[in-house]
TrEMBL record:
Function: Pyridoxal 5'-phosphate (PLP)-binding protein, which is involved in PLP homeostasis.
Residues modified as N6-(pyridoxal phosphate)lysine: K44
Name of the molecule in the record: Pyridoxal phosphate homeostasis protein
Record-stated family: Belongs to the pyridoxal phosphate-binding protein YggS/PROSC family.
Native source organism of the sequence: Sphaerisporangium flaviroseum
Residue intervals of the Alanine racemase N-terminal domain: 36-230
Taxonomy, superkingdom: Bacteria
């Protein structure tokens, strides 16, 4: 009988190899260097053992979207050289917990959240990088600010002690052309960098649209299914 740990490692290694092939191909098509892209493995619903496999395979950026799962997993993997990303919609009452482990928060979309994160980061003596989530379809139900509100929120993050403005994040609209959406995000990012030149992160692209994201300047890809497969959700 096969060792289940060996089998799972092989599955993840195969997924990673295919994702890397896709990223490399998209970079070549866009005239970009692979070194410009950070692959963030979205490990939501998957066990800490998968995080350990990914780390052994050379992936050091991992993301979660629920604090309860993320906090436990970050604690369980505290011995690993990881950068933790939080990518889900975030309630202000979870700010203290998320600030305790997250290095980059991709989903900052309102002033009250900025205030809460800054306050908790100062208490924890941490400096947390924040991305402004932009609603490209202007659907507030999916999180994010409308483009017109981006400059004000970015400025607020930049002025808040304990926080650093890293850039922007968006999810492609459920319907519509991801190329057009990500091109719009790049325009917004470029405009923001005129005021905040260090805010260079463009978090865009997931398993299904990473090539379009790379073609339109993404620096960070949030990939889960293509890396880890569709498995029965892990329940802690």
């Amino acid at each position: 009988m096969d060792d289940p740990n060996t089998t799972r490692r092989d599955e993840i290694a195969a997924g990673l190899a295919e994702v890397e092939r896709r990223i490399t191909g998209a970079c070549e098509a866009a005239g970009r260097s692979r070194r410009e892209i950070t692959l963030v493995a979205v490990t939501k619903t998957y066990p800490a053992s998968d995080v350990r496999i990914l780390t052994a395979l050379g992936v050091h950026d991992v993301a979660e979207n629920r604090d309860q799962e993320a906090a436990a997993k970050a604690s369980e993997c505290a011995d690993l050289p990881l950068t933790w990303h939080f990518v889900g919609q975030l309630q202000t009452n979870k700010a203290r917990s998320v600030v305790s482990y997250a290095d980059m928060i991709h989903s900052v979309d309102r002033p009250r959240l900025v205030e809460a994160l800054g306050r908790e980061a100062v208490k924890a003596e941490r400096r947390v990088t924040c991305l402004v989530q932009v609603a490209l379809d202007e659907d507030p139900g999916r999180g994010g600010v409308i483009p017109a509100e981006l400059p004000a929120l970015a400025g607020m993050i930049a002025r808040t002690e304990g926080l650093a403005l890293g850039g922007v994040m968006a999810v492609a609209p459920l319907r519509g052309d991801p190329n057009r959406a990500f091109a719009r995000l790049l325009e917004l990012s470029s405009a923001m960098q005129e005021e905040h030149p260090d805010a260079t992160v463009v978090s865009a692209g997931m398993s299904g649209d990473l090539a379009e994201a790379i073609a339109n300047g993404a620096t960070h890809l949030r990939v889960g299914t293509a890396l880890l497969g569709r498995r029965k959700p892990f329940v802690r």
